[in-house]
Amino acid sequence: MPLLSRLRDLAGKQPSTGRPALPDQQRITTKSHETVVRALRDANRKLSEENERLRNELAVAVGQLRDLRRGIPAQGE
């Protein structure tokens, strides 16, 4: 089946709400959905915190490298 035909077939199966049509056995309850959303938000928050920490470490390392290239002794030596 050509790709365009498959895409049209899939689009025709979509409900009017714009959400993907799922078989009844794959649908989740609102409570389960909220649990998943909460877990994803928590994971995203943790990743954001880790990214900020790594960004700060990288900024310090780049600053130290720049100082070394300029011949300025690193702090703590």
Mind explaining what this structure looks like?
The N and C termini lie far apart (69 Å). The protein is mainly α and 77 residues long. The chain has helices at 3-12, 30-70. The mean pLDDT is 84. Helix content is 66%, strand content 0%.
Q: TL;DR of this structure?
A:
With 77 residues, this protein is an all-alpha fold.
Overview features:
elongated
Number of helices: 2
Query: What ranges have pLDDT less than 50 throughout 5 or more consecutive residues?
Result: none
Q: Give a quick account of the main beta sheet: strands, pairing sense, barrel closure.
A: none
Radius of gyration: 25 Å
Distance between the termini: 69 Å
* Oligomerization status of the protein chains: single chain
What's the SSE blueprint?
Blueprint: H1 3-12, H2 30-70
